[in-house]
Design a protein that fits this description.
Blueprint: H1 10-20, E1 50-51, E2 62-63, E3 68-69, E4 75-82, E5 87-96, E6 99-100, E7 104-105, E8 114-119, E9 125-130, E10 142-147, E11 157-158, E12 160-161, E13 167-173, E14 178-184, E15 193-200, E16 203-204, E17 208-209, E18 219-224, E19 230-235, E20 245-250, E21 261-262, E22 273-278, E23 284-289, E24 296-301
Parallel strand pairs: 12-16
Antiparallel strand pairs: 1-24, 2-4, 3-4, 4-5, 5-6, 5-7, 8-9, 9-10, 10-11, 13-14, 14-15, 15-16, 15-17, 18-19, 19-20, 20-21, 22-23, 23-24
Length: about 300
């Protein structure tokens, strides 16, 4: 069972950061950083999922992403989504001067509606999904990129594909440049599917649906391991434990994927369980779940997933 700790006053800090809409200048992060400082100093979870950073990352609002850590574990990014109207803001906190900074909106993720950040293995590039206009036109959800410049992130640029889809979001990338992401085909009645392409020279090849893993139901928010051998994603296909469940598939010799496996309880629940992503050190699985009453960021030992995680 998730331990729902008391929500603290840090929620006020989150809301004030949203109003300001600014980005803390992270500069050089604190060099004295040990295990006790990692993950906001929280007690690591075991085989039962727990709410991550209640009152700081997980709030009364809808957290529409996992917690995404930089490779050195000194910075973390996530999406705070406010309702009525829906507004998605990419937040961050960084370890500096011996403590974690107050949550604040990133410079690239405060304007328009944004969600689901993902950082490359070197920490230099961020992919995220946004409804910001392209060339003055409102085109809905599409993928964007921003690069780390030393003190802040660059002005976002749309991620270019050899062939655009009407919808694209939540992209992750393997070390060999293979990307997987959520997408929808030209037929707007299509359910969300998982697409793949290759990222090279700052753009992606023509996207194609990933064989085997897709169904007529929702299949999306995929995360591919760094070595490209393992995939975790969400789906509402029949046979699950609730709404959206987390599934996995592995790459076989010859290049095909195994039939997806429901990751079961306690990871999945009667509610929605989504956005599965492993921490950079491979020790924990971060995901979103509304089993506690609202969609929060949760974490659990990576050992709950029996399939080895590729580095």
């Amino acid at each position: 069972m998730i331990r729902k700790h008391e929500r603290v006053g840090a929620l006020v800090l989150v809301v004030s950061a949203i109003v300001v809409g600014g980005c803390v200048d992270v500069g050089e992060t604190q060099t004295h950083f040990d295990v006790s400082d990692q993950y906001f100093g929280q007690q690591p979870p075991g085989m039962e999922p727990e709410i991550f950073a209640p009152g700081v990352v997980s709030t009364e609002h809808y957290e529409h992403s996992p917690a995404v850590f930089s490779p050195d574990l000194k910075s973390v990014y996530w999406t705070l989504e406010k309702q009525d109207p829906t507004t998605g803001i990419i937040m961050f906190s960084t370890f500096r001067d011996g403590a974690w900074t107050e949550p604040a909106a990133t410079s690239f993720g405060a304007e328009f509606t944004n969600d689901t950040p993902y950082m490359t293995a070197d920490g230099n590039t961020m992919f995220f999904c946004s409804k910001r206009p392209r060339e003055g036109k409102e085109l809905g959800w599409h993928l964007w990129t921003t690069s780390w410049g030393g003190n802040d992130w660059s002005e976002p640029m749309p991620l270019e594909f050899d062939e655009d889809l009407p919808f694209s979001g939540y992209l992750t990338i393997a070390d060999d440049g293979v990307v997987v992401f959520s997408g929808r085909g030209l037929d707007e009645d299509d359910a969300r599917d998982i697409f793949t392409a290759r990222f090279e020279d700052g753009r992606c090849s023509k996207p194609v649906r990933l064989p085997v893993v897709n169904t007529e139901y929702i299949d999306g928010y995929p995360n591919i391991s760094r070595d490209g051998s393992f995939l975790i994603f969400e789906s509402d296909r029949p046979g699950g434990l609730g709404g959206l469940d987390l599934y996995s598939s592995t790459l076989k010799e010859g290049g095909s994927w195994t039939e997806p496996k429901n990751l079961g309880a306690p990871l999945n629940s009667p509610g929605d369980d989504r956005f599965g992503q492993f921490s950079p050190d491979g020790k924990y699985l971060f995901f979103g779940s509304d089993r506690g009453g609202s969609m929060d960021v949760c974490w659990v030992s990576a050992e709950v997933v029996e399939i080895p995680l590729g580095r």
